[in-house]
Amino acid sequence: MVDIESYLKNNEASLYSYRENAEIRKMAERYGFLEYMIDRYLDFLGDRTQEFLASCSLPLKKAIRCNSLKIPCEDLEERLRDKGFVLSKIEWSKFGYRVESSPKRPSLGATIEYMKGHYYIQGEASMIPPEVLSPANGEKVIDMASSPGGKTIHLAQLMNNEGLIVALESNPSRLRKIKSNISRMGVSNSVVLWMKGEDAPKLGITFDKVLLDAPCSGEGLIPLDPSRKTKTSPNDLMGFQRTQLHLLVSGYKVLKKGGKMVYSTCSIAPEEDEFVVNFAVKYLGMRVEKIRGIPGEEGLRQFKGIEFSPELVNCLRTYPHIHHMEGFFICLLRKE
């Protein structure tokens, strides 16, 4: 098997060399992005690039996830409607709602229902990874990068608070927030550990399902945080990519044979998405399963001259200019 460092080195020249021309400079200046980012968008978005760039300046609708562990969702709908909120059900989600309009008061994060843990404020695309993983009651699941706890809670809902979730977090300053969120939402089947995801094999446990919502550049969150237009350098991107590959290998090691892993990022960067999953398919022998019933574009076949495994078209990409949600990448992998 090719090791991670060799994989990175063999593709570095292709991934991290960039064109410079008048068109790229003009678009970068007009929309406020770094030039290297524009070059990449032109590679995989083509003539849809300007539509994407323009959409990054438009607000996205807020969304919430009803917490079925504490309240029937029909009751929550009625309570929020009485307060002046207008909700619409997210068609593909078991618990998700778009917030179509809100009253002046209270704000979404200041209602009694929110304080009691009856719902969780969460981006629409962020609800996709747990839904795709679809853990069953009684299974053992590991969330390898759990902060701030939203996806851990979602997994617990899908499992009806049964089975076991091991939630890992490497940053000790984030542990209190994760534990607070889990407690407020009534989760009782989860254990939160201060541990790097890369060290998961040290637990000596194998899991039925693995959720790896990997630390990333957040390049899909630009509509929510415009600073990300200029925040990430190519060197930063390399660092994220290396971490993601190491987390992926650790997740593979703790996954049972026949078990499933969701690899996801809140990034549209192919360097953090298809390039990482391509390693899992080509060198770990994992298979990509088709994601059905959720809106999105298929995974990329190639990027900057690098051909990816044909299976990667089964991955899912979301974009603000097409799906009106955050940019996200989701891939469902099975260990052979």
Summarize the topology.
Blueprint: H1 4-15, H2 22-31, H3 35-44, H4 49-55, E1 62-66, H5 73-82, E2 86-89, E3 96-101, H6 112-115, E4 119-121, H7 128-133, E5 140-143, H8 150-158, E6 164-169, H9 172-184, E7 190-194, E8 207-213, H10 234-254, E9 255-265, H11 274-283, E10 287-289, E11 297-298, E12 302-303, E13 306-307, E14 316-318, H12 320-323, E15 328-334
Helix pairs in contact: 2-3, 10-11
Written account of the structure:
There is one protein chain. 35% of the residues lie in helices and 21% in strands. The chain is built from twelve helices and 15 strands. Strands 5, 6, 7, 8, 9, 10, 11, 14 and 15 form a nine-stranded mixed β-sheet that branches. A four-stranded antiparallel β-sheet has the order 2-3-1-4, covered by helices on one side. Strands 12-13 form a two-stranded antiparallel sheet. A hairpin with a 6-residue loop joins strand 2 (86-89) and strand 3 (96-101). The chain is globular. It folds into two domains: 62-121, Sun protein, domain 3 (Alpha-Beta Plaits); 125-334, 3-Layer(aba) Sandwich (Rossmann fold). By secondary structure, the chain is of the alpha/beta class.
